[in-house]
Amino acid sequence: MTLPVLTASDFASDQDVRWCPGCGDYSILAQMKKVLPDLGVPREKTVFISGIGCSSRFPYYMNTYGMHSIHGRAPAFATGLKSTRPDLMVWVITGDGDALSIGGNHFIHVLRRNLDINIVLFNNRIYGLTKGQYSPTSVEGQVTKSTPMGSIDHPLQPLSVALAAEATFVARSIDAHVKHLGETLKRAAEHQGTSLVEVYQNCNVFNDGAMAYAQEKKQRAENVIELEHGKPLVFANGTKGIRLVGTHLEVVNTSDVPMDDLLIHNESDPNPSIQMMLARMSYPTMPEPIGVLRAVSDIPTYDDQINQQVETAKQKKGTGDLNRLFNGGDTWTVK
Amino acid sequence: MEATTTKAVRSVSGITVRLAGDSGDGMQLLGTQLTNTSALAGNDVATFPDFPAEIRAPRGTRAGVSGFQVQFASEEIFTPGDVLDALVVMNPAAMVTNLGDLRKGGILIANEDGFNEKEFKLAKVESNPLEANVIEETYRLIKVPMTQLTRDAVSEFGLGVKIADRCKNFFAMGLVYWLFGRSLDPTLRFIRDKFGKKPEVASANEAALRAGWAYGETTEAFGESYQVDAAELTPGTYRNIMGNQALAWGLITASQLSEKDLFYGTYPITPASDILHELTKYKNFGVRTFQAEDEIAAVCSTIGAAFGGGMAVTASSGPGIALKAEAMGLGMILELPMLIINVQRGGPSTGLPTKTEQSDLLQAMFGRNGESPIPVLAPRSPGDCFDVAIEAWKIATECMVPVMILSDGYIANGSEPWKIPTFEGLPKIAVRHPEGTDPEEPFLPYARDEYLARPWAIPGTPGLMHRVGGLEKEDGTGNVSYDPANHQHMTNTRAAKVAKIAERIPTQEVFGEESGDLLLVSWGGTYGACHTAVKRARDAGHAVSHIHLRHLNPMPSNVGELLRGFKKVAVAELNQGQLRMLLRSQYLVDCKGINKVQGKPFTVSELTDAINDLLA
Question: In terms of domains, do A185 and A88 share one?
């Protein structure tokens, strides 16, 4: 049987998109619609689950099954769905407030369980839907509606959190870098286990340009390093690279050091130590990595194992027989 | 070989006995064994385990006392009994905390070896309570050096003193079995099953059990033993069942009757955890259990499984239900079927985790933001948990709505004989999922059937792709809508859907006449005590009737009429008057309250006193 060939427009629902004009969310929606036809999963087998926030309106705009759930809990809904319906491709759409603040607990636990779903975390470093309060990824000192004298919170680094939670697939991309974003989403979809893609997403109303250093094409070369598995870490059009010295990373001019001295990216290294060092590189002292930081395969998925236990139990004990259960143990008969 | 006594045997209609000792003394095990053995002897049984929240409260203290009460009888009984015919105590703390419930002339068996200076200090008693004159005068005191006798009995197995002393609950068990003419066989089988891998421990426990029995037979302290004949129960095959076990089995049965695999998302909490422990044993029935990271994840995973078309269930107790409130509201507005079980305990906040209460009724009714009515059902006894689980799932799937089951710690841990059904004899639960048919016809996820239920279209079905969410939905399409008239219409529809259930559930049964001087109303786990108290009042010639509500939302259609048929209405419940508030507001009938929040069930005599006061 050949599957009908779908296009991006087949994945668009009949609902009007209601994000602010110029929002980075539009780009992520467009790339998602573009990538999905290539994955070969029928629309009816695809489910988008979101929490609350601007990004979480995403499922309404997709012509698939979808659920706009409650704040921070999308991974928990996805756990119940994917555990009972492993035949479905499940995406979780979340934001920095949704995933890292109110939903921090579910975020780390779904990653450690390695449920076979894909999480796209729209990180705009601000609360948008509630109109401009600081978020767990807002930078220190940021002045917002709720921090008139500047934020005194130390920001969370989503990729570090994910690596610490034993995530098997950790990646980052940028809304404005559409080609890279599409490829990264595709890699995430293809991974067996929980995939996390952090997307730098511009909120042009409440936090415009917060990540311009990475989003704007002109600045990107200097401030962003595109990771490629098995390749040395170079950026700034090949003029700079990253070298591992002892237990830290440093930026070097490629003209000053031999190519062999540069760190070779290994996304499939089961030991996450160097991947964690990459995740911690941050602007302005270091370039920020995009692409796949970690992708380890052959780790059992939660949904596979929960269903495997059911099969094993059936093989060992036979398919459940209620009459036998009721009458097992001590019984007596009244005549 | 079955041992038989050569002493005199006195036949009695029923016995209430409580076994009390330190948390580590194995009293719960002793009680469970006595219950099963009595049930197997054909008695009707009712139990009340009562234990502290601490796993090992400081040894020997009053806080650490663990008790197990059982009534076994040759007639139908509904409660574990008010006053004790016999009390077994392993230490002074157990004695001073339980003696008040022993009737005058009742048998008090004390482990004499547990009464020494050290134990007096731990129990905060000045002197040996066994030596008070009043004890000998008031009760039939029998002092037994159980620790020493047990050591002697097990000495041949070469166990250390510590392990040998652990056998003393089996010695106590043997003695109790002799006193009440119970067979040793079921417990001997249990010992072999449980300790089969440690033959020396199995042999020692068996020896202790037999030594206890022989002690009763030979000591002069006991002149006679007691016999309780089999009760006249409805013909059939029976087993003993606990409430949480019956609930778990009811859930599995409902899943099979509806041909759905069961998904159970939960977080450990007393007294609901045993449902998880029970269910997770039955993966070969297609049961998937998910121990979530918290209560919220538990209920959310349940909604996810329901969206996917599974039989989705979550359970907790009051504090956990509070955490689930937002998600329950989502389940309600998504209009997906699922069960939410609350095994109630003493509240508020952490409250009394191991004690019973019925104070979450209003939480079940109204504990969500916005207008969010859901059906609420409450089982009345351990065995009834089985039937309620099945009925709740039927309602959930027929109406596409989350249904709340209100159990409580008393029936969850209590047990009673249960007439075993045959699976084939239970009615199937028909569940439909729409198929995508005409690609030109737009799918309406919020179209309504005769019950006002929407179609349960599940992912994987071509042509029916749709989005659901917590925002208000347009009628029919389910698209997000902020239209004022639509919100009113959808709110009305969701409420009407639940209210219409009253048209399909049975009308309320009445014990007694449909009019009279007093109607006693009750719900949930207080059934046994309320029924017994009303029966006694009727036997005494009073015009008292009883209705016990299983359906709390909606209530059966004739409840209002019934309430108006009596001169007085009283509502007995283990809270400060929550059902009373509902009845007054829904039916504008004055109701008196019989209320108690002490972490303990009603005794029959408390209710009898209250009934007599109301009739005076």
Answer: yes
CA triple A125-A130-A133, angle to 5 deg: 45
Facing residue for B302 by CB, picked from A75, A80, A87 = A80
Could you tell me the domains of chain B?
Answer: 8-228 (3.40.920.10), 239-420 (3.40.50.970), 435-504 (no CATH), 516-615 (3.40.50.920)
Residues A260 and A272 in one domain: no
> Are both A299 and A245 inside the same structural domain?
no
Who among B282, B304, B461 is closest to A77 (CB)? B304
- Overall average pLDDT of the B30-53 stretch: 92
Q: Determine the residue of chain A that is closest to B481 in CA distance.
A: A15
Shortest Cα distance from A59 to chain B (angstroms)? Answer: 7
Compare all CA atoms of chain B with the CA of A58 and give the residue at the minimum distance: B467
Across B298-318, average pLDDT: 98
- B-chain CB neighbours of A105 within 8 Å are 293-294, 297
Residue B152: both structure tokens together = 């002697």
List all residues 6 or more positions away from B616 whose beta carbon is below 8 Å from its beta carbon.
none
Report the pLDDT value the prediction gives residue B52, as an integer from 0 to 100. Answer: 82
Cβ contact A62–B284 (<8 Å): no
Query: Do A75 and A194 fall into the same domain?
Result: yes
**Pair B135, B129: CB distance under 8 Å:** yes
- Segments in chain A below pLDDT 70: 1-4
Name the residue range of residue A255's domain.
Answer: 231-264
Q: Mean pLDDT throughout B11-40?
A: 93
Task: Kindly state the tokens that stand for A61.
Answer: 């705009």
Q: Which residues of B touch A87 (CB under 8 A)?
A: 460
Q: How far is A178 from chain B (nearest CA, A)?
A: 26
Q: Do A44 and B307 touch (CB under 8 A)?
A: no
How many domains would you assign to chain A?
A: 2
pLDDT digits (tens, 9 = 90+) for B401-436: 999 999 999 999 999 999 999 999 999 999 999 997
Q: Are A136 and A98 in contact (CB under 8 A)?
A: no
pLDDT confidence of B492, banded at 50, 70, 90? very high
Whether A331 maps to a domain, the answer reads no
Contact A323 B287 (CB under 8 A): no
**In sequence order, what are the residues at sequence separation of 6 or more whose Cβ sits closer than 8 angstroms to the Cβ of residue B121?**
none
Tell me whether B226 touches chain A (CB under 8 Å): no
State yes or no: pLDDT of B438 exceeds 90.
Answer: no
Whole-number pLDDT of residue A4: 67
Residue A31 C-alpha, separation from nearest chain B C-alpha, in angstroms = 20
Please, where are the H alpha helices in B139-263? 146-154, 161-165, 168-179, 185-194, 199-218, 243-257
pLDDT at A3: 58
pLDDT band at B1 (very low <50, low <70, confident <90, very high): very low
Q: Is the pLDDT of residue B546 over 80?
A: yes
The pairing of beta strand B516-523 with beta strand B544-549: parallel
For residue B202, what pLDDT is reported?
A: 94
Task: Compare CB distances from A68 to B309, B423, B467 and report the shortest one's residue.
Answer: B467
Q: Are residues A96 and A113 in the same domain?
A: yes
Q: Which residue pairs from B125-129 have beta carbons closer than 8 angstroms and sit at least 24 positions apart in sequence?
A: B125/B92, B125/B96, B128/B92, B129/B92, B129/B95, B129/B96, B129/B99
Which residue carries 């209210």 as its tokens?
A: B499
* A&B contacts, CB < 8 Å: 210
DSSP sequence for B302-326: HHHHHHTT-EEEEEE-HHHHHHHHH
pTM for the model stands at 0.95
- Give the Cα separation of B572 and B592 in Å (integer): 9
* Interface predicted TM-score of the whole assembly (ipTM), two decimals: 0.97
Q: Could you tell me whether strands B376-377 and B402-408 are parallel, antiparallel, or unpaired per DSSP bridges?
A: parallel
Q: How confident is the model at residue B371 (pLDDT cuts 50, 70, 90)?
A: very high
% residues pLDDT > 90 (chain B) = 93
Instruction: Sort residue B60 into left (φ over 0), alpha (ψ -120 to 50) or beta.
Output: left
